UniProtKB/TrEMBL annotation:
<dbReference type="GO" id="GO:0016887">
    <property type="term" value="F:ATP hydrolysis activity"/>
</dbReference>
<keyword id="KW-0813">Transport</keyword>
<dbReference type="InterPro" id="IPR017871">
    <property type="entry name" value="ABC_transporter-like_CS"/>
</dbReference>
<dbReference type="InterPro" id="IPR027417">
    <property type="entry name" value="P-loop_NTPase"/>
</dbReference>
<dbReference type="Pfam" id="PF13732">
    <property type="entry name" value="DrrA1-3_C"/>
</dbReference>
<keyword id="KW-0547">Nucleotide-binding</keyword>
<dbReference type="InterPro" id="IPR003439">
    <property type="entry name" value="ABC_transporter-like_ATP-bd"/>
</dbReference>
<dbReference type="GO" id="GO:0005524">
    <property type="term" value="F:ATP binding"/>
</dbReference>
<feature type="domain" description="ABC transporter">
    <location>
        <begin position="7"/>
        <end position="234"/>
    </location>
</feature>
<comment type="similarity">
    <text>Belongs to the ABC transporter superfamily.</text>
</comment>
<dbReference type="Pfam" id="PF00005">
    <property type="entry name" value="ABC_tran"/>
</dbReference>
<dbReference type="InterPro" id="IPR003593">
    <property type="entry name" value="AAA+_ATPase"/>
</dbReference>
<keyword id="KW-0067">ATP-binding</keyword>
<dbReference type="InterPro" id="IPR025302">
    <property type="entry name" value="DrrA1/2-like_C"/>
</dbReference>
<protein>
    <submittedName>
        <fullName>ABC transporter ATP-binding protein</fullName>
    </submittedName>
</protein>
Length: 302
């Protein structure tokens, strides 16, 4: 039975000497939700995940699952995929997955069955008896995902799961994560591939300098950002829009102009100014992508 409450990260703080790794980090990953956790290198994503898994201890704050504090028993029900591969390089793929499943409490027969199922599902059938160190980096990443899934976890915490994968493997992993969330499992993953995060995630948290600075659905985040007006007027001279009140020229090249338009500015005024220069081939509004929002957040936080 899926609990009503998911994974709660409640005001986590962590320092290393004078360096603040986390400061009141707070968010929740709800049951059945794909949650994207994004930020620059060193922003605090991995530290947060390691605290949730018990690898690190927070200076203050709490982690709860289904409303209760995390214990060793509940952590055994987590599936964790670290950014740095945590596999035994000289063990064979099948043996490794069976061993890890048994460590999580699965009976031997169930462990073998689950390991075989994930080996097939993730396209590793021909590599099942190979040592991990003999696999390509992409196939090692597939084994690492299988290791996080083999014990049928109640929560998935994945640190850069798409790193090093080819497009086919990205599609397979994306489908697996969607299936797990559809089954009611909270899934949180970090990634620098923001196009994937935007496509897959129900909600996204943007982290900067150890603090959650924005957290909402992708649509809500994009709607709250500043949209741009894209105008293609091939005959327009440079600076044609610079004198329009409330309009900021973001970029201008070969007749293609991107404008940031203030509240209350009438688009028709801009359109008439563009038409005064000659034909207009495009006049459209574009909402910011997740990558655009991320860049703006990082710039503001510097």
């Amino acid at each position: 039975m899926v609990p009503e409450a998911g994974l709660e990260i409640d005001r986590l703080s962590k320092r290393y000497g004078d360096v603040v790794a986390l400061s009141d980090m707070t968010f929740e990953v709800r049951p059945g939700e794909l949650f994207g956790f994004v930020g620059s290198n060193g922003a605090g994503k991995t530290t947060t995940m390691r605290i949730a898994l018990g690898v690190l201890e927070a200076d203050s704050g709490a982690v709860r699952w289904a409303g209760d504090p995390i214990t060793l028993s509940t952590r055994r029900r987590f599936g964790y995929m670290p950014e740095e591969r945590g596999l035994y390089p000289k063990m064979k793929v099948l043996d490794q997955l069976v061993y890890l499943a048994k460590l999580h409490g699965m009976p031997a027969n169930d462990a073998h069955r689950a390991a075989d199922d994930w080996i097939v599902r993730l396209g590793l059938r021909e590599r099942r008896l190979d040592e991990v160190q003999k696999l390509s980096l992409g196939n090692q990443q597939r084994v690492q995902l299988a290791a996080a899934l083999v014990h049928d976890p109640d929560v998935l915490v994945l640190d850069e799961p798409f790193s090093g994968l080819d497009p086919v493997a990205v599609d397979v992993m994306s489908q697996v994560l969607k299936e797990k969330s559809a089954a009611g499992i909270p899934v949180v993953f970090s990634s620098h591939q923001l196009d994937l995060v935007q496509r897959l995630c129900d909600r996204v948290g943007i982290v900067n300098k150890g603090t959650m600075v924005a957290c909402d659905t992708v649509d809500a985040l994009r709607s709250a950002g500043s949209s741009e007006l894209h105008v293609h007027a091939p005959a327009a001279p440079p600076g044609w829009a610079a004198g329009i009140a409330g309009v900021t020229v973001v970029s201008e090249l070969d007749g293609h102009t991107s404008l940031r338009v203030g509240d209350g500015v009438d688009d028709q005024v801009i359109l008439r100014a563009a038409l005064d220069t000659g034909p207009v081939h495009e006049f459209s509004r574009h909402r910011p992508s997740l990558a655009d929002l991320f860049r703006d957040v990082v710039k503001e936080g510097r």
